[in-house]
């Protein structure tokens, strides 16, 4: 009887140990599953849902690798999230910003370097803004012709008079010197303004040739979005509708459009205009869910998004 009980105890112990071992040896998630976990944590952080964020954080911090389709495991490290949650009052805004930055990075397409990568890099670095554009030579001959007589005249004023009859009164000399210095100051101001205009005209370069979207007008982007929507491609249509909004705000000098910027960086540019920032935030959130999260969208949803973009005032000056 004792041996039977001992055998049953060993069997239960082995089963429990095997269950724990199996749980500990769960395969790492694939990229899609890992992205869904990140988005669940982001949504919980944006809503201030500490309970939901804690559950999502436990799952992320327990994950140390992501398995690609070819079987390769890519290491991940979310210990920062565990440290951020290990406080009496976790900063959900900072956590949400960091999770959004991770998702934005994952959304960028990756590709292997082409054979001519070095040549492409050299060509890229040879163009603005990495390389200084060649500035046109400014002809300063006119300035030399203007200043030379003035300087020669000032030189004669400061030379000691050899003849008593040529000496002028001290008051007259002060007046002449003052007028001369004033003329010299005017010439320098004109020169500085001329150089600044030349520099600004050279610095204004054409749109980035590698970004065809930068050459679109807001109206063209909206037209392209409507055309895509009629063909049923609502995901890309939302992207061009959002692009039309960015181009419209760029034309109004409310923000600077650059395809290299993240949506969080666009919101950062609007920090000085809180009302416009609050109005554009839900538009960006919908774009993130549809474009990056592949959230399904139908014709009615797209039209509602288009109306939301069109209703946003381009001047944004009410804030």
Commentary on this structure:
The structure is a single chain. By secondary structure, this protein is mainly α. The protein has three domains: 20-107, no CATH class; 141-155 and 172-202; 215-310, no CATH class. It contains 13 helices and two strands. The protein has helices at 2-24, 31-47, 50-61, 79-85, 92-107, 117-125, 141-158, 170-203, 218-230, 234-251, 263-269, 274-292, 299-310, and strands spanning 65-67, 73-75. It has a two-stranded antiparallel ribbon with strand order 1-2. Strand 1 (65-67) and strand 2 (73-75) form a beta hairpin. Helix 2 (31-47) runs antiparallel to helix 5 (92-107), helix 3 runs antiparallel to helix 4 (79-85) and helix 7 runs antiparallel to helix 8 (170-203). It starts with a helix and ends in a 9-residue tail after the last helix. Mean pLDDT is 76; it is low at 1-24, 161-166 and 199-207.
Top keywords for this entry?
two-stranded antiparallel ribbon; single chain; 2 strands; 319 residues; mainly alpha; disordered N terminus
Concise structural overview:
With 319 residues, this protein is mostly helical.
